[in-house]
Amino acid sequence: MKFITENFLLETEIAQELYHDYAKEMPIIDYHNHLPPAAIASNHQFANITEAWLHGDHYKWRAMRALGINEKYITGTASDQDKFLKWAETVPNTLRNPLYHWTHLELLRYFDIDELLTPKSGLEIYRKTSEKLQDKTHSAIGLLKQQNVELLCTTDDPLDSLEHHLSTGQNDLDIQMLPAFRPDKAYAVEDAKALVQYVERLADLTGISITSYQDYLDALKNRIAFFHQAGSRLSDHGLDQPYFFEPGAFNIETLFKKVLKGKALEHQEVHYFKFETLLHLCREYHKYGWTQQFHLGALRNTNERMLSTLGPDTGFDSIGDFQQASSMSKFLNELDKTNQLTKTILYNLNPSQNEVFATMAGNFNDGTVKGKMQYGSAWWYLDQLDGMEKQINTLSNMGMLSSFVGMLTDSRSFLSFPRHEYFRRLLCNIFGNDIEKGLVPKDIPFVGKMIQDISYHNAKSYFDFDGTKAKRGVE
Predict the structure, then answer these.
(1) Residue 161: how many CA atoms within 13 Å on its side-chain side?
(2) What is the spatial distance between Cα 246 and Cα 275, in angstroms, rounded to a whole number?
(3) Among residues 450, 375, 455, which one has the least CA distance to residue 420?
(4) Which of 48, 88, 245, 368 could form a disulfide with 249 if both were Cys (CB 3.0 to 4.6 A apart)?
(5) Inter-axis angle of helices 325-336 and 354-362, to 10 degrees?
(6) What is the pLDDT of residues 420-469, one digit of tens each?
(7) Cα–Cα dist 198/177, whole Å
(8) 370: left (phi > 0), else alpha (psi -120 to 50), else beta?
(9) Residues 6+ apart with CB under 8 A from 305
(10) What are the C-alpha distances in Å from 183 to residues 277, 292, 348, 423?
(11) Phi-psi category of residue 424: left, alpha or beta, with phi > 0 → left and psi -120 to 50 → alpha
(12) Which residues, 6 or more positions from 399, have their beta carbon under 8 angstroms from its beta carbon?
């Protein structure tokens, strides 16, 4: 039974025209994902659909657990075939969950399979997809090229050697992979022992003897310069909420030396260390003209028993209810006071705070850059039809949708790139319905160009990417 039709999600003829004539063929710039750089650089060939599709995908894992499927078939010792067959049992029960749409869109786009995945069809689909994954059109690079991916940015720790990014920069892979600086571990001072080990590794890597907080900043700045030379133009930060203190509220050198001795900081001291370190990093990003991204609002590692068994990022995080507005405004203002607030994307995970984030972004636009402050795309639990529509509508009401840099995958899977298509179809459907209602003029070329900008051109311009070969080195 064919489920994903040519006009999937497109409710009007105008929406169909906007999608097929304007959005469909636009290249993809995926400026935030968690793909493994080594797999791209080596053009990894997947053994089977389970490796390509289920390994590391905590969205699917959560759904399987909710149905009472034993962990053996999720992250455990079961064979890849048996794990896939358990996923096939799960899929029919995911109706109205975005996993149902994503599953069948991905089967169709990558493998030309328009049959529904069910327990009955599971084994044959496992065989067909695993067989196709053995040819070069379904290698890591092949899968990206199928979706017209032009450029992607991975998420990389400051200690990363970037060897895989540098090797792909020297080769012609048709797709450019650039790093993005993700320094979360550099201010994860709540675990003093782990941070001491991090400082030691950073010192070895940079050749800087780190005995003071200023030494630590110098070493981190050294890595930012290295990332920039490797083509990085973005940073990213995962935080429950931004913190703000009056600078000097604590003596940062005293706190740092306390940590170097392996001593735990008090609750407010931890927050101050994060604030001060992030503030210094953000000023350095401004120096290089980078874009900084803040992913805010996740409540992570809630299940201690499963964390100790499986580790982080295995499906036990949720939406948090942190207060955001006051500290966020003060933090951004602290940077803006000295005109050191660089281009910024604010991602919200709690839908009750959509308007907070959208209006906060507008507070710090200054006319220097189109869309300098971005209310980012619907993230994690919200990158589904309802969440994306709410984000689009909130941005439209509170800001400038026409300046939006659009969708990203935020995914660990090479099969997730049809999410860009999913977003573009929804975007075209929203505009199509507005035109039908008389809320938007029926100027198809103008609206079509706006959709193309949101889908591709805005990101290309905003991040200073010059097509398939972004400039490397200090400008």
Answers:
(1) 5
(2) 10
(3) 455
(4) 245
(5) 20
(6) 999 999 999 999 999 999 999 999 999 999 999 999 999 999 998 764 34
(7) 26
(8) beta
(9) none
(10) 10, 11, 19, 29
(11) alpha
(12) 358, 359, 361, 362, 375
